[in-house]
Design brief:
globular; mainly beta; 1 helix; about 35% strand; Methionyl-tRNA Fmet Formyltransferase, Chain A, domain 2; single chain; five-stranded antiparallel β-sheet
Length: about 90
């Protein structure tokens, strides 16, 4: 096949989501990590979370710092990203 190239596996460092990135980029990266079977992770404060899905939300909170937890809900967290708010379907590690 012409134009096909090899895509290297994600490194351990690449599994970690950076909440300063744009919401869409986080959603794409998490989807790719889950599809490879690795899964995504995020560190908020001193806690790490395993993330299975990132869903962009229409709400915005211009007063929250990037990476702030806005709400803890039954299946994860609502957090501020670099450009909006996302729902992380996640469970706390450890």
């Amino acid at each position: 096949m012409d134009g096909v190239s090899y895509g290297a596996a994600f490194t351990e460092q690449e599994r970690w989501l950076d909440l300063g990135e744009k919401s869409y980029a986080l959603q794409c990266k998490c989807t790719a990590l889950v599809m490879t079977g690795l899964g995504a992770k995020v560190r908020i404060g001193g806690d790490s979370w395993s993330v299975s899905c990132v869903t962009m939300l229409p709400e915005a909170d211009g007063h929250a710092a990037v990476g702030s937890i806005l709400r803890i809900i039954a299946d994860g967290l609502v957090v501020q990203t670099g450009d909006g708010v996302v729902h992380l379907t996640a469970g706390k590690d450890g």
